[in-house]
Amino acid sequence: MDASRMSAAIRYRVFKRIAITVFAFATAAGIAFAFFRIAPENHIQRITETVKGWETSFKSTPKLSKCRGFHDANKIWKESQLKRQRLRDDKFTIAMQTYRRPKELNETLNGLLLEKIPSLSEVVVVWNDLEATPPEGYTSKHGVPVRFRQSPVNSLNQKLWPDPAYQTQAIFLSDDDIFYKPRDLEFVFQTWRKFGRRRMTGGFARCTIEEANHEYKYSFCSTDDAHNNYNMILSGLSFAHISFLDYYSSNDALATKIRAYVDQHFNCEDIAMNYLVSMLTGEGPLLVKGKDPYVMLSPPSGISTKPGHFEARTQCLNDFNKLFGCMPLIEETGHMEHGVILS
Fold first, then answer.
1. Across-strand partners of 219?
2. Which of 61, 69, 137, 256 is exposed most, by the fewest CB atoms within 10 A?
């Protein structure tokens, strides 16, 4: 009996210690969880979960492109993707087109290179002035090389030429009179890496309106939250994968016709890029806003300042629809914004 009582007492003390230990761990875990819920990391967790949900929603949005049968185009594009895998995807290149606007060009370059952009590999200024020698290249104070590339012709297609010297998969297509602030440009690049590789990704959204006669009208986009759709991101402020430039500059019949149209009308290469990207991927563009508004210098001269600009762009839309035999642009509503906690 004494042995039995002693054994029972030992079991009781062991059980008591285990119970106390479990209770202590449970209490500590509860306190830790409570602190986690109010800690800053909780906001990060919420952002992550929201972004994942947004990504799923964005990817599952029904696509409305009616374009089919571009087998040769898709073959060229897929071959380019394989070929370009050797290029870096953790850095990006800026391709900035300019024509006789030295003041705006210098201000844009200075604004971009004022601060360090961690992922910026190179700036290539596409020099379209055939009568003036471009400046010598240089290296910024943060070690970014700036290269001036003389165009063989004054063509809007030159910015979309896949320069063999490019070392990155991501090409940031830019005009000389508009730019993101440096910290915002880095954010846009990282957003492109995660969400935008198959899209035109940037800050310059435009829309189309289908009219009663089934023709389309070029338009600014609504700022009304109930009508916040868009279907183009213009190449004056946009990331594009280099494989899209490969296709745009290829000998494919459709790409050749598009480039000829752009040269003939000296307009609409940015619309054409949106058509081609959505045709190839079946996906719409991605609008990304910086923490600060992008800087628009509004120079006194330029294609967009000419009378009849919107009418000419509308004509491009309908001419492209005939060339493509369809309307490939796809409506999107989702966007990303630097410094905003999604909820």
1. 207
2. 69
Nearest one of 337, 293, 43, 333 to 188, comparing CA atoms:
337
- Tell me the pLDDT tens digit for each residue of 201-251: 999 999 999 999 999 999 999 877 667 899 999 999 999 999 999 999 999
What's the DSSP call for residue 118? Answer: T
Amino acid 122: pLDDT: 98
Pull the structure tokens for residue 333.
């509503």
Report pTM. Answer: 0.81
Query: Rg for the chain (alpha carbons), in Å?
Result: 27
Q: Backbone phi, then psi, for 339, in 5-degree steps?
A: 85, 5
Whether 119 has a pLDDT exceeding 70, the answer reads yes
Tokens representing residue 154 in the block: 């004054």
Secondary structure of residue 225 in the 3-state scheme: helix
From residue 319, alpha-carbon distances to 151, 189, 250, 261, 325 in Å are 27, 32, 20, 9, 10
pLDDT at 28 over 50: no
Place of tokens 């909820």: 343
| Terminal Cα-to-Cα distance of the chain (whole angstroms) | 67
Token pair listed for 185: 């440009």
Quick one: pLDDT at residue 19? 53
Partners of 96 in the beta sheet?
125, 174
Tell me if residue 88 falls in helix, strand or coil.
strand
Of the candidates 229, 238, 234, 235, the one whose C-alpha atom is nearest the C-alpha of residue 335 is 229
The encoded tokens of residue 262 equal: 């752009």
Tokens of 220: 């600014």
Kindly give the pairing relationship between strand 201-202 and strand 286-289: parallel
User: Does residue 261 contact residue 82 with C-beta atoms inside 8 Å?
Assistant: no
SS3 sequence of 142-204: CCCEEEEEECCCCCHHHHHCCCCCCCEEEEEEEECCEECCHHHHHHHHHHHHHHHCCCCEECC
Residue 160 CA to residue 217 CA, distance in Å, equals 25
- Mean pLDDT, rounded, of the chain: 85
Would you state the structure tokens that stand for residue 339, as one six-digit string?
């410094």
